[in-house]
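Usage

Read records sequentially. Each one opens with the input sequence:
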Amino acid sequence: MSINTIKTLGELKKSGYLPKSIKEELRTNLIEQLKNKTSIFTGIQGFEDTVIPDIERAILSRHSILLLGLRGQAKTKIARLLTHLLDEYMPIITGSEINDDPLAPLSVFGKNLVEELGDKTPVSWMHRSERYVEKLATPDVSIADLKGDIDPIKAAVLKLPYSDERVIHFGLVPRANRCIFVINELPDLQARIQVSLFNILQEGDLQIRGFKLRLPLDISFVFTANPEDYTNRGSIITPLKDRIQSQILTHYPKNTSIAKEITRSEAKLHQEQNSKVKVAEIHRDILEEMVESARNSEYTDEKSGVSARMSITALENLVSTAERRMIINGETETTTRITDFWGVIPSITGKVELIYEGEQEGSYLVALKLLGRAIKKVFDGYFPNPEKYDKNKDPFGTIRIWFQSNNNISLLIDSSQKDYKEELSKVAGLSKFISDRNITEEQKFTFMELVVHGLCEYEIIGRNFIENTFDFGDQLSGIFDEDEDDEL
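and closes with the structure output:
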């Protein structure tokens, strides 16, 4: 019998339906997926050998789960994916506030309805997407919000005394009966509110305002939190931690290739941007190296972490910077440039938490330093270190001499493709240096620009940024100009 045709308790009994707890449901469906070698976590990358096996073990053990990690580590995304381990549909007594099982109702409403109507009790079907309840913990969350309270209006309308269980207005937790209930940022809950969760986690029951009722709720709890030493707003009290059976540590991507795939899949680029703006692979490398540099920088708070959202929004801004340049110049397509990264700065400055030294530098200068370090690291991955060669064997010798001979180039952030290529082509020896490196014609100017910026990071040549224009010239020429200005 199809679930679409089952409308009453009697029909449900005839169908052979057997109720099971939500944790048993999660466990059964996970076992089936493991046997079939499929996974609900296909969109989660970098956790295949660490976090995901831990989550699967916790589900098999029918545990409540605490996902502990820094911001931007896909904790909430993982929790939301767990709904795919639920049965597609679940029967409930129609009109029940707490998703009463027709075969084992908990609420007075459900029990009275079954007693009154018997097999004619109406049954509805709840899709698994509706069996997910999420609450962001904030200091103002009350016990009534989570558990419930007496509703004086209901008591007045129904003409019931406050001692009657029917005057209770259920909170989020009882309304999540037979569902997955997620509390994000658990340490932000006041300690007394955390205490109210003890019985629900340990015994599965609920008490509201001293009523002598016991509701053995069936809930699969998932909590998320930053490490306690990071958040100054509170901590997870020890007795509550003791009742959460599995604590699973999340982490940032362990290498650049995984980080690039996460950013690529999560960035929300417009369809036109995808078709008209090509992001050079080395620019994706620079972007991820910026994020990694931010996580390890002496200017940023290591305990705070740097979210994956930084690389995602940075990629979106990088593409938009290139798109804007393309539109201004009347071009139909373009490729990203290193100069486009200066349009990425606004998506970085607000996403790093600076320590005292960083505050002294300023968020803008810190962002520029992070970009410089990223450029240097990517440069080192493709080209030899220019500091390791003497004048006779220097592979950058021709380029160095050209700049030292009082020559310079100017790259405008919004320059056309034609002007961009003409400026880079002026540098003697640069085109030949790239040609000798087995780099495709399509990538040629992207790598030529990388060489120029890389040599700037090694202070072989100088770079000045004035009014949206990058001037590259002899590293020492600026010093002499400054001396002359001082004399004047």
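Summary fields computed downstream for this record:
- The first helix runs from residue 9 to 14.
- The longest strand covers residues 220-225.
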